[in-house]
Amino acid sequence: MITTYLFYFLSFLAIMCALMVVFSKNPVHSVLYLVLTFFTIAGHYVLLNAQFLAAVHVIVYAGAIMVLFLFVIMLMNLNKDTEPHKKPWLKFSAAIASGLLLVVLVGSLKGAETIVPTNAFNPNIGLIENLGKTLFHDFLLPFEVSSILLLVAMVGAVMLGKKSIK
Amino acid sequence: MSAIQVIPINMYLLLSTVLFTIGVLGVLFRRNAIIIFMSVELMLNAINLLLVAFSSYLSDGKGQVFVFFIMAVAAAEVAVGLAILMMVYRNTKSTDINILNKLKW
Known about the structure:
The structure holds 2 protein chains of 2 kinds. Chain A is mainly α. Chain A contains 6 helices and no strands.
């Protein structure tokens, strides 16, 4: 029973914070609301028995990526006054378009068949031991390739961030 | 007690659809490039949530491993994207995407 209440509470909080990310005037407030959204999603992961993933999510997203965003916003000195705005009719059409996308997606998911789980329910699937086994048995090559991706991204970020490129 | 025993998978489908749509709304609604980046992050997280939900619903760890890869790609994307944004800001003194219309037809 308490799981159900927790699910609805976290879902409500996630959707509200996500809406505030889009609609708040100050970019710093947007970042802080996005951090709150990430914490609620981490709560969902805990509810889904993905404990290790919840910890990684908090560390990577709320700890690393959002701090990067916050640094960049403070470096650029953005605030409410310098914030550009779209024309009202463009905002209206954006809201209509995404509302229609929501209607289409929900409508297409309404008629979908429900899946039947083939495996027996295993609550230990999200523990680090099982995840590590899956990662290093079935996904060893993608794991190594993603390390190359991170290296390339690091080199690219340093190159782009330099003052002048000759 | 786990959530998947009391919450049907349709609720997770609905939740991540709504979060994804809010991300799309943010991309269409705002002109600040940083907010657009954050909306893209929101969309990625909606997909991550759905992958984890299906993974634990089917008791298959592969979905959660996939989320790790998405996180790595998102981290790389943010690092390069924010570097590009810093360069844009240095050249135009603004993060307004309407200034960046040189490639527009």
